[in-house]
Amino acid sequence: MDNEKNNIQSESEVNNKTAENISEPNTLNKHKKKRIRILVSAIIILCLIAWGVYYYYQETHYVTTDDSFVTGRPVYIVPHISDYVAHVHVINDQHVNKGDLLVEIDPKNFFLQVEEAQAGINISQARLNAAVANYEITIDAQNTAAVDMHRNQILMAGDTEGAAISQEKFEHSISLYQAAVSAVLAAKAGIMLAQSELQKAKVDLDQAKVQFSYTKIYAPVSGYITKRNIEPGSFLSPGYPVMAIVSDNKWVVANLKETQLEHIRVGQSVDISIDAYPGAVFKGHVKGIQAGTGDVFSLLPPENATGNYVKVVQRVPVEITFDAIPDQSKYFLSLGMSVEPIIKIK
Question: Which one is the CATH code of 65-72+249-344: 2.40.50.140, 1.10.150.20, 3.40.50.720, 2.40.30.170?
């Protein structure tokens, strides 16, 4: 009996020790998990605080929008005269410099107009020369008639020796003098008319030369050729564009919400990111703020006096210029490319 009790007691002690050994790891695991939860919670809280600080800093120091795009000024090439195209010296997407020859129009008709105008000048100059010569002749005739009339007047008065002249002869000399005076006046009028004709001929020549100069179309700006729609032999009409040049001078238009404009000022620096070139950041600055929202200058501006009005946050275009135009061989900018500018307001 005593042995059995001792055995039972020994087994009980062994079981108690085993239970204690099992419970100790469980307690340790609970403490460890609790510490991990506390640590994770602390990390999450710190991350939230850091994000909040970062968000506050960004909101108070920067303004950005994804409603932005690259823009520029396409220059449309329009002929001034009508005729057939002789040569086209450019193709689409070709870069040209200001003053490069783009198109040549058949010059034959316009060259003939210049020659005709030059001939008109020659004729008018000859008429003017003849009018001047005639004026000199009439002046001589007037002087002669004046001398005769004066002599006859003296003879009629009897102031000199010699035979007196008849009244009829004296009146005839007066008539000759008056006719000479009229001839001088007519000659002067002829000179003035010839001078007017010569001036008009010169104007015609200048106009013909201007028309002739229009047979060659040069690039008004440096940029890239787009929308070329002519070929040699095409007939051109004034006022209809034959191609366009997208100027090398490009900038960014950022459509900011009106609530973002409080701290926007001209001259603030801007970091410009272009979607087509991730990772590349270009420097720029605010050049101007449009004096009106985008809707005001739309084709059909909104009318808010109709009775039904829903307030909508308006957007105002802000012009941003590059401090240096990106290298077009590496970062080619097309009009309409999406941009995300970051304006530094502090």
Answer: 2.40.30.170
